[in-house]
Structure formats: C-alpha cells, structure tokens
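Go through this pair.

…
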Amino acid sequence: MSNLTLPERYKHLEEVDNLDSSWDSVKLAIRPECRDESSIEKAKIAMSVGLNDAAINYFWNLTIYDIQRKVIAYGIEYFPSAINWGGKPLKTLEDLREVKDYQLITGAFALGVIPEEADFFLQHCREIRNKFSAAHFPLGDVDKFETINFIKNCIKYVLTYDPPAPGLQIKDLIENLTIERLDSTEELEYIVAAQSPKIQGPILHSLFASFIKQDCDPTLKYNIKKLAPIIWELVSDDVKSSIAGKFASLRDVKGKDAANEALAFLKVVDGVSFVPESFREIIFKKQAQFLIDAHFGWNNFYAEPEQAVALSQLGSDVPISALSTYVKAVICSFIGNIYGFARDAQSYNEKMLTGLSQTGVRAVFNMLEKDIDIVRELTSMRPAKRLKELMEVIREKTMLPKQKEMFEFIGENAPEKISNHFKSLYNKMAK
C-alpha cells in the first residue's frame, strides 16, 4: 500500500498526546473551513464528561457530511454509476442523505475522492459508530483510547484534506459530443485516459445511459460509437460486467427498445461476452436465426450481409446451447445457393468461421452430416464448390479422425463428386 500524502496541517495532530490539553492542535489538523463546525466542540464536551459514544457520533456525522461535500465538489453526476445506484436521482447534497454511509464511502473511493487506505479504515469507523455510539443502542462502552483513535482516523482520512479538484464533467462531455460529429477522438481519448481508473467506469456508464435513450441525439450517438470502444478498453472487467448486466434488467424493466439499444452498445464495444450466459444464448440464437431466415428469403443476396454483420458483432464466444444455430447460419450464408452467394456477407462469415472453437468445428461437420437444409443446398454445384472454400478457412483447426476424413474428401474431390455425395445423403434423409 502506497503512503498517503498528508497535508502539512496534519502534523498538528501527530504531535498530540492528550486530547484534553491539546484540543487546539486537533482543530489545527482539520482544514480551516471545518474548524468552526459545532460538532467538534460538542465532541470535546462529550469526551470531557465521559460520553465517548456521543463524541464518536458527532465526529462521524461531520466526517460523512464532509465526504458528501467532496463528492459534490468532484462531480455528483459520477456518483450513481460508481455505486450502481437504483434509487431516485442524485443531484444535490440533500439527495446524498438518501445514500447509506457504506455506499457513500464505497462511492467516494470508486471516484478517487478518498484512497484505498481511507476506504478500509472508514468502513471500520462506520462499524464502531453503528455498534458502539449513541446513534444506536450500543453493544457496549467504547473507551477513551478508542475514541481518540476514531477521531484521529476521521481527521486523517477526511477532515484534513481539501476538497478534490472537479473531475471531467460528464454533463460538459455529453454536451460537447452533441455539438458536431468528431473527425477524430484523439484529444478526448487523451483526456479520458488521464482520468483516474476509478472514474473511467462512471464515464462509460454515463455514455451507455445516453446511448440507450430513445431520444438520443444522432450526433451524440455517432460520437459515442467512436469513443466508447476506447474507454471500454480502459475499464475493469467489473465495470464491463456491470454495464452488460444492465441489458438483462432493461429487458424486464424498460422493454424491448431499451434492451435493443443496450445490445447495440455492447456490439459497438465488443462486449457481448460479458452478458450473463442465459441471455447470450437468446441473443445468439435470435440473431443466427435472422441470418438463416435471410438466406432462405426471396431477396437473400441483399438481406444476408446486414444479418451477417450483426451476428459477427456478437463476438466469437458463442454459448454452447446456441452453437448449432450459429454454425448453421454461417454455413448457409457462406455456401450460398444454386444461384450464388451474398458477396458482401463473406468477410464476416469468414471471420466467424475463423473464430470457431474446437466444439464449433465439430458442429460444422455435424451439420454437414445431419442438417437437411444444408445437405439440400449442397446437392447443387455452386454450394458444393463453396464448401471446398469453407474447408480452406478452417484448415488449421483441430479435427477428430472422422472429421479429418470428411475434410480430405471435400478437399480432394471436384464439386460434382461432392454434390453427388450430398444428393445421396439427401435422398436418405428425405425418405
């Protein structure tokens, strides 16, 4: 743990060995605008008559109030995302009174308003205040030494420090992103990257919240699409999971439109793999079926590319339960039909085939043996020729002996012989 950089004024407290005779030094360790707070004098009086539990409560209330003020100074718009707040909007100091003490401390740490060491010791102070002070019926008495230590920690980790410098103001950022489409995000990338890792998450949360609004300004949405992938790479997996997890709640709470926009955002940042498994199954199956339907539709050469792009954007981490539908969609789009194939879809199909796991490769060969729709397509010469090209795409994949045998059969024979093989197989399946 790195050492705290304490203000020069804190040295006044380090020299104190008796609070009764050195109270003025205690006050000098506190930053000037807090020294005249009535809670400090009340705590002194309480300790002088043995009411240590009351002294603890007075100092704790002042400490919490000061953290609230520092959150405001930094930028309260960051705070709800920092604690995954689900209550009423937090916009003012009064609103922060709705936040529990442990959430306030956690959020202040997440924003970088207080350091990690402060988070640890303040949470300990919170437990002492809750269980041994006048705030609740106490578990027992707290002695003078513990009280002194409690006051020292409140000063050391909160009251001695000046308010933080304002963080990057999300409101200003959103307004700037709404003015005009960005030719380059380089300057904004630098600004965001320079922020504390503890606040890059709230920035991304806010961009996500703006993106999924039905009335999101088109210019803002365009710019978020350019900036969000860069910020996504800066944040932790916990932040990514938190944003992806919101997709599930949006489906249940705010309906299909908001969920669709959330999914669009996750595609932009390549974050679908962070969606809970049960929902990823639904997403992959649904989009794969769209591609299958487009392939067998009347205008497939026009319709397939859009659906292939959307399926590719979901990433290569395909849930096992959706793998068959996914693989069928990609094979169908890749091999085409008797009239040809959708050329604009092929770079995405190749990307998806290249990204297949060993289980995915097994699914490919299983489809060639058991899926009647694919087998029927391969009775024609053009799809049979494309199947040879598909085998080249997966050439370097690990295959089982039976799969290797089929791979070599397709690679070594002309399209006519391949199509005859599938005609024979189709006739058996159709009976």
About this structure: The first helix runs from residue 11 to 14. DSSP finds 24 helices and no strands in the chain. The chain has a mean pLDDT of 89. The CA atoms of residues 368 and 375 lie 6 Å apart.
